[in-house]
Amino acid sequence: MIAFEADEYSGSLPGLTLDVIRTGRGFGSNIVTSYVERDITIACASTRFPMIGRTTTDDDTIIVALITSAPSSTRWCGIDLQPSSMLLYGPGAEHTGISPAGVDFTFTSLSIRALEESAEYREIDFRVPERGRVIALDSAPDTALIAGVLRAAGDQLNEGGLLLRSEDVLRSVGAMLAHEPMTSRCVGRRMTDSWSFVSVCIDYVDSQRGTLSPRGVGARLSIPELCAVAHVSERRLRNAFYDTTGVSPMRFFRLRSLTRARRLLLNARDLGGSIPDVALSVGYDHVSRFSSYYNDVYGEYPSTTMASA
Predict the structure, then answer these.
(1) What's the pTM value of the predicted model, to 2 decimals?
(2) pLDDT value at residue 215
(3) Domains defined along the chain, listed by start
């Protein structure tokens, strides 16, 4: 079992890749506790500051997530969530989530191969969710079964151990997939298209790193530039970002640049960098403006972060 504090991070657990951007001050750290076997991961998370999250599921994996607490403004994959909401992610699905402080959830990622072996042993048929599909599951007996299993797993992980067997999870997810509720809601085409536009912009900005000018990384981007990259109108681009991230394109990339700046500040002593160096590397010519933006999100100035490293 692994427990860690998650501030801003890009990382992975078996079956999925995570990318989180902090969007404001909170009231503590994000805590993620996970149990990992070869073909299954069970994890619970408590978010204590607002963030935008992106999760990508591997091509041979599905994810089932249970929300245990959520403020009214919690929105994942274009779906407004509440306590007891459940989401099912097919292989290769991309998740974007707007999470205010105070969201708690438990999820499991399972390899399709392990599900197939478990189903064959119990002589049942199940349907693998369509690639890239994200489903909000409605109440049904089999959905309630996996919800109970995940709720128990989350409680056990928070108490320092996991008593559930992985087969219990495989069996309950397999039963749900064998009787997928017909009334479940799938993420619409608009949401899928919106994320594709946002992804193009992110890839473009990332490609600017390492060039002579840091303009693509942070404060020097322009809306017309991003519209040209995504081949959409300004209105459609703004709507795409609000659909998927809940913020404007400029605010999204500002937050993203501050995320990168925090990582650099925490390693500045080892790398011999200074606050002006960090500010310039993420696109800010004026240290005072950079420091103000940074303080708005983290509740401290860059000098404090660097001193604590």
Answers:
(1) 0.77
(2) 45
(3) 2-186 (2.60.120.10), 189-308 (1.10.10.60)
